[in-house]
Design brief:
globular; 596 residues; single chain
């Protein structure tokens, strides 16, 4: 059975065994990540960054070049590009070295989780948890791409290690460290701010092992166990220390935002637009740009501001822009509350589904390039971890007074993801919280099988099967979503100059999802670049039949028409591009050129 095993107070055998487990886990994780990074280095988006990856990389380059303060309030979470900038200042800005350093901190996270899970349960569980995270396919994938999910995993594992503690007493310094770590996480994943409430409640009212020891022993106070009044004061001091640690991290960010943007905010100003994206009447639970064709970070802030100011007829501050989009979303919710509740339920299922909803880069594309990653993803994915975690939670249910904080961390993060929109990397912070329970489930199931305690195995098996059926049930067109990621790989190839290879991927994307305006538009562009204008025009028309108001398609179609001498038709499409997007300067310049 899963049992509590304390590190011996005398002797070094137990301590050495724990150190060996952490070292083994760390080395295994590092080796796996380096091999997968090498094998997947030929993926187009690994060689030529696009989307958020390109945005973070360019931001980090600007910071490393000396722009450490910046000129605008933060719209995207800032810690990851600042961490990259620090690395660039040391080792240069090679994309490959970014993958190496992420492999290193990903391996460190696995070692930390090994130690933490051993503290939560027992040493065997710690070793299994560390190995599970080391070879968990999505973790290896996120550690190998230029995305902030890798840094969030490290910070969560640090946070869990601080919670488990290395001291016997829960001292103010440890509470402050916990507050600071959780706040650093908020600068990577803004929705982690909900965890501040959970952790403050845990310190104030919970029963973490070190807190009980502190109250029982007085942590250096004279006399016996502290009275209730002293306990209240002590816990209030710990909460205060936690908040002080959080303030040390977040207040300077707020001051910086106030200095450059005129408004105090301890994180970012994109909550409103993101809430609207996930909750307006046309939402499907996944990311949709506010303006079709503007899926990159360069457009996100501008579009949110321009649309809000156009609708209100006045200049808005970043906070006012965020409030505007919250208001727009709630107006849609009030018009169709039943539809919104249905959408919310779907997003909850999507949060707990095995499929890793892709953003720009898909794990499927990387699996095709890396045989090791393909094996890891087939053997261990979200649909495997969750049923095992259900077994672990059931097996350890009698210790709920110690573990309730972990339950609440999982539930609150899942709710925060479903409240906005779902991507695989957004729900990823749940994984390092689930894995200790999954490891406890593995150890408990093994013990029951070894002892042939079939009567206890049966109900756990039923729970696991039920969870597996829910989590592994297909609830979306996965092939269509994967095709969009293949299309993005084609975009990276085209931008790097390999248009012919990009055309192959664009054809595959159109075949898998013929109703994608973006896929048809990209294929048309690639064909036009190769001089195949007749076929390009066919796909431009197909794209406009799907999305007649998308300015980028009109502009690209106009360019192709101008190239073959159809100037009047080209001018018509340039005019439509400007009509649908008055800020499309390229289309406006082309239209002015043709009108002379």
């Amino acid at each position: 059975m899963v049992k509590d095993v304390e590190v011996p107070q005398r002797g070094t055998a137990g301590r050495n065994a724990g150190v060996r487990a952490v070292a083994l886990t760390t080395l295994l994780a590092l080796g796996v990540r380096l091999v997968c990074a090498y094998q997947s280095s030929r993926v187009p988006t690994a060689r030529h960054l696009i989307g958020d990856a390109a945005g973070y990389y360019e931001w980090a380059q600007r910071i490393a070049a000396g722009d450490w303060i910046g000129g605008e309030s933060f719209y995207q979470a800032p810690l990851y590009p600042y961490a990259l900038a620090a690395w660039f200042s040391i080792a240069g800005d090679s994309v490959w070295t970014v993958r190496v350093v992420q492999a290193a901190w990903g391996a460190a996270a696995c070692g930390l989780l090994c130690w933490t899970a051993g503290k939560m349960f027992e040493r065997r569980v710690g070793l299994v948890a560390g190995v599970m995270l080391a070879i968990y396919g999505p973790t290896v994938f996120f550690d190998g791409i230029v995305q902030k999910a890798s840094l969030s995993n490290l910070l969560i594992c640090v946070m869990l290690a601080v919670m488990s503690g290395g001291e016997r007493c829960f001292r103010p310094a440890r509470a402050a460290l916990l507050g600071g770590t959780a706040s650093l996480l908020c600068l990577v994943r803004e929705n982690a701010i909900v965890w501040h409430l959970v952790l403050c409640a845990w310190i104030a009212f919970g029963e973490p092992e070190a807190v009980r020891e502190s109250e029982r022993e007085g942590c250096g106070a004279d006399g016996g166990p502290a009275g209730s009044g002293v306990r209240v004061i002590r816990r209030a001091a710990w909460v205060g220390a936690y908040l002080a640690g959080a303030a040390i991290v977040l207040v300077p960010v707020g001051i910086r935002n106030a200095r450059v943007g005129g408004e105090f905010s301890v994180t970012t100003f994109q909550a409103g637009p993101n809430f609207y994206i996930g909750n307006h009447r046309g939402a499907d639970g996944r990311y949709q740009p506010l303006v079709r064709g503007h899926e990159t970070p360069a457009f996100e802030r501008r579009d949110a501001t321009v649309l809000a100011q156009h609708d209100t007829g006045k200049t808005l501050t970043p906070r006012e822009v965020s409030r505007y989009w919250f208001w727009r979303a709630w107006e849609d919710v009030k018009e169709d509350p039943r539809g919104w509740l249905k959408l919310l339920g779907y997003k909850a299922l999507l949060t707990w589904n095995r499929y890793e909803v892709a953003d720009v880069e898909s794990i499927r594309v990387y699996r095709q390039a890396s045989s090791l990653l393909n094996v890891l993803c087939a053997a261990g994915h979200f649909g495997v971890i969750v049923p095992l975690a259900v077994i672990g939670a059931a097996a350890t249910r009698r210790r709920w007074r110690r573990l309730w904080v972990y339950y609440l961390l999982i539930i609150s993060m899942a709710a925060a993801v479903a409240a906005f929109y779902v991507l695989g990397r957004y729900r990823y912070p749940i994984v390092p919280l689930l894995i200790p329970f999954a490891a406890a489930g593995c150890v408990h199931a093994w013990d029951l099988l070894r002892l042939r305690r079939w009567a206890e195995i049966a109900p756990l098996a039923i729970l696991a099967v039920a969870a597996a059926l829910v989590v592994n049930r297909p609830i979306q067109d996965e092939r269509r979503l994967d095709a969009l990621a293949e299309m993005n790989a084609g975009v990276a190839l085209a931008e790097s100059g390999d248009v012919r290879s990009a055309t192959v991927l664009f054809r595959q994307a159109v075949a898998a999802n013929p109703q994608s305006a973006e896929a048809n538009n990209n294929l048309a562009q690639a064909l036009a670049l190769q001089g195949e204008f007749a076929e390009a025009i066919e796909y431009y028309r197909a794209a406009l039949a799907i999305e007649p108001n998308l300015p980028s398609i009109h502009y690209n179609f106009g360019v192709a028409l101008e190239r073959i001498g159809r100037v009047a038709d080209a001018a018509e499409h340039y005019a439509l591009a400007v009509q649908h997007d008055p800020h499309d300067n390229d289309a406006r310049a082309a239209l002015e050129r043709l009108s002379k």
